[in-house]
């Protein structure tokens, strides 16, 4: 049974940082592309980062490179999203996904002064 457990969200001040984690089980994690998405209110999920098994990452949002870092630890079956210098526009629910077919439960990131 595929399970993706997302943690690490919360409330942060502008300029702050968070690290989201996605702990995976029930499948050979190291063989799968893993992704981070965000979902703005009332909209579809938007791809944030795509991490292939070798840990190479592609970022899909203009504001992400240099601010967010997505990476994985295949020994721990865990995907991470390090969010630095967070801005108000980064406030959303964040999800991890196994190749856009299996989804974690989402974690809320709130940005407030």
Give the SSE layout:
Elements: E1 3-7, E2 10-12, E3 18-25, E4 34-39, E5 46-51, E6 57-59, E7 68-73, E8 78-83, E9 92-98, E10 102-103, E11 107-111
Parallel strand pairs: 2-11
Antiparallel strand pairs: 1-3, 3-8, 4-5, 4-9, 5-6, 7-8, 9-10, 9-11
What is the H/E order? EEEEEEEEEEE
What would you call the shape?
globular
Largest sheet: 7 strands, mixed
Percent helix: under 10%
* Helix count, DSSP H or I runs of 4 or more residues: 0
Cα Rg: 13 Å
What oligomerization state is this entry in? single chain
How would you characterize this protein structure?
By secondary structure, the protein is an all-beta fold. The chain is 0% helix and 50% strand. It contains no helices and eleven strands. β7 and β8 form a beta hairpin. The N and C termini lie far apart (41 Å). The model has no long low-confidence stretch (mean pLDDT 90).
Q: Can you describe this structure in just a few lines?
A:
With 113 residues, the chain is mainly β. The chain has no helices and 11 strands.
What would the keywords be for this entry?
113 residues; mainly beta; seven-stranded mixed β-sheet; four-stranded antiparallel β-sheet; 11 strands; 0% helix; globular
